[in-house]
C-alpha cells in the first residue's frame, strides 16, 4: 500500500508541473520605439516670401450663458489665467432663489407621490377583497403615476436651476492670457454677450496667404522660416505648415497657417511676420533632406537604405535610396522617399524589414536666432 501511495503522490506532482507549464504566459512581443522624422523639406529650390501675422493657435470669446448683472470682474486685460479659474461673477441672488424654489417644489412633489403610493396600495388591497370597483383602482393608479411624473419634472427644474447658478460664474476654458475685456462690473449682460477674449498660452501660429499659382507646391508639414521686422537682424523662428485652405479668398489667394509649438516669450499675438518657404523648382528632380543617421550603407556609392514607417501596419519597410550631397548632417535624397514619408532617424542598425515599431515624438525645429532653413 505504501508503494501505491508513493506512486499516486508522484503522479499528482507530475500533473501539477505539467499544468504549470501549460499555464505559462506566452512571451510578450517587444515593440521597439523609433525616433521619427517626417520628410517634408526640399534640398534646394525657389525661395518665396509672404507677409503674415502672429495669432494664438487657440483663442475664444467668453460670454455668460445666462442673463444677469455682473457683480465682479476678477481679471483684467493682459492677465494670465489658469484653466477653471473664475474670471467674472454675476449677481447670484435670483439664481439662488430659483434653486430654493425648485427644492421646495421637489419636496412637495415627493410628499404627494408618497401619499398617492400609499393610497394606491390601500385601494389595491380593498380591490382584492372585492370591496371597491376596478374603475376606482384605475383612477388611483393614474394619480400615483401622475405624482411620479411630477417628481421627475420637479427634479429636472431643480437641476436646471442649479446649472444656471453654476453658469453665473464665468471660468477660463484653458490656460491663457486675457487679450481683451469688453465690459465692466455692475453692467447688465445678456446671454452670449462678449465679456472677455482669451488666447491660449504657448502655442502660436503664423497666418498668411499664398497665391493660386504657388499653392499646389505647398504641402502640410513643410518648413517655414519666420522673421519679424521688430526683431534683431538674423533672428528667425522655424515653423511648419499645419493648415492649408481649401478655397481661395481675396485676390485668389489661399489662407495658410504655420504653427509654432513653443515660441519664445518675446513673440506675441498680433505681431507682423514674414514667412519664407523654399519651394521645389518646377520640372526639377525632387530632392528631400533626410538625417544622415537615418541612412544605412548600401553596396554602391551614393546609395543607402532607410526604414519607412507604415502607420497602418505599424511596421518599418527597408527602402533603397539615392543621395546627392549633404548639408549640415542632412543628406539630399532624390530617389526612394517622398514628402510625407516617416523614416526612422536613429538606431537603424537594430531594425529589420517588416519589424513592428512605435514612433516617438516626431522631430520638430523651432529655434530662435538660428540660421534660416531656406538658404
Key structural traits:
375 residues, single chain, 24% helix, five-stranded antiparallel beta sheet, six-stranded antiparallel beta barrel, conserved putative lor/sdh protein from methanococcus maripaludis s2 fold, Elongation Factor Tu (Ef-tu), domain 3, OB fold (Dihydrolipoamide Acetyltransferase, E2P)
Helices and strands, in order, run as HEEEEEEEHHEEEEEEEEEEEEEEEE
Helix content: 10-25%
Task: Specify the structural class.
Answer: alpha+beta
Strand content: 25-35%
**Total helical elements:** 3
**Number of domain modules:** 4
Task: Describe the protein.
With 375 residues, the protein is an alpha+beta fold. The chain is 24% helix and 34% strand. It has three helices and 23 strands. The protein has helices at residues 2-23, 93-128, 134-166, and strands at residues 32-34, 36-38, 46-56, 59-63, 68-73, 80-81, 86-90, 169-171, 176-181, 188-189, 194-200, 204-211, 223-227, 237-244, 253-260, 272-279, 288-291, 296-297, 303-310, 315-327, 330-335, 342-344, 357-359. A six-stranded antiparallel beta barrel has the order 3-12-15-14-13-16. A five-stranded antiparallel sheet has the order 17-21-20-19-18, with no helix packed on it. It has a four-stranded antiparallel sheet with strand order 4-11-9-6, with no helix packed on it. A hairpin with a 2-residue loop joins strand 20 and strand 21 (330-335). The chain is flat and about 105 Å long. The model is unreliable at 362-375 (pLDDT under 50).
Amino acid at each position: 500500500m505504501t508503494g501505491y501511495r508513493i506512486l499516486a503522490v508522484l503522479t499528482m506532482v507530475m500533473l501539477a508541473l505539467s499544468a504549470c507549464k501549460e499555464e505559462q504566459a506566452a512571451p510578450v512581443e517587444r515593440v521597439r520605439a523609433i525616433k521619427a522624422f517626417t520628410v517634408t523639406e526640399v534640398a534646394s529650390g525657389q525661395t518665396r516670401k509672404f507677409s503674415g501675422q502672429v495669432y494664438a493657435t487657440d483663442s475664444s470669446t467668453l460670454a455668460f450663458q445666462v442673463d444677469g448683472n455682473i457683480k465682479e470682474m476678477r481679471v483684467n486685460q493682459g492677465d494670465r489665467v489658469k484653466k477653471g479659474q473664475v474670471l467674472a461673477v454675476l449677481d447670484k441672488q435670483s439664481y439662488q432663489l430659483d434653486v430654493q424654489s425648485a427644492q421646495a417644489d421637489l419636496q412637495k412633489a415627493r410628499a404627494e407621490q408618497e401619499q398617492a403610493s400609499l393610497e394606491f396600495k390601500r385601494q389595491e388591497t380593498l380591490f382584492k377583497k372585492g370591496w371597491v370597483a376596478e374603475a376606482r383602482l384605475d383612477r388611483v393608479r393614474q394619480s400615483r403615476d401622475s405624482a411620479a411624473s411630477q417628481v421627475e419634472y420637479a427634479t429636472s427644474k431643480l437641476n436646471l436651476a442649479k446649472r444656471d447658478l453654476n453658469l453665473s460664474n464665468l471660468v477660463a476654458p484653458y490656460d491663457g492670457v486675457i487679450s481683451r475685456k469688453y465690459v465692466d462690473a455692475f453692467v447688465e449682460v445678456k446671454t452670449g454677450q462678449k465679456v472677455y477674449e482669451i488666447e491660449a498660452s504657448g502655442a502660436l501660429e503664423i497666418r498668411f496667404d499664398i497665391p493660386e499659382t504657388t499653392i499646389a507646391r505647398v504641402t502640410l508639414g513643410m518648413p517655414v522660416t519666420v522673421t519679424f521686422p521688430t526683431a534683431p537682424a538674423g533672428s528667425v523662428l522655424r515653423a511648419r505648415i499645419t493648415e492649408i485652405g481649401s478655397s481661395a479668398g481675396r485676390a485668389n489667394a489661399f489662407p495658410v497657417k504655420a504653427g509654432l509649438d513653443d515660441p519664445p516669450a518675446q513673440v506675441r499675438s498680433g505681431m507682423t511676420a514674414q514667412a519664407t518657404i523654399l519651394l521645389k523648382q518646377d520640372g526639377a528632380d525632387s530632392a528631400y533632406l533626410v538625417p544622415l543617421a537615418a541612412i544605412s550603407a548600401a553596396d554602391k556609392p551614393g546609395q543607402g537604405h532607410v526604414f519607412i514607417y507604415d502607420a497602418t501596419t505599424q511596421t518599418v519597410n527597408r527602402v533603397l535610396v539615392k543621395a546627392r550631397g549633404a548639408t549640415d548632417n542632412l543628406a539630399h535624397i532624390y530617389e526612394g522617399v517622398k514628402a510625407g514619408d516617416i523614416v526612422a532617424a536613429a538606431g537603424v542598425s537594430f531594425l529589420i524589414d517588416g519589424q513592428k515599431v512605435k514612433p516617438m515624438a516626431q522631430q520638430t525645429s523651432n529655434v530662435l536666432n538660428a540660421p534660416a532653413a531656406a538658404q
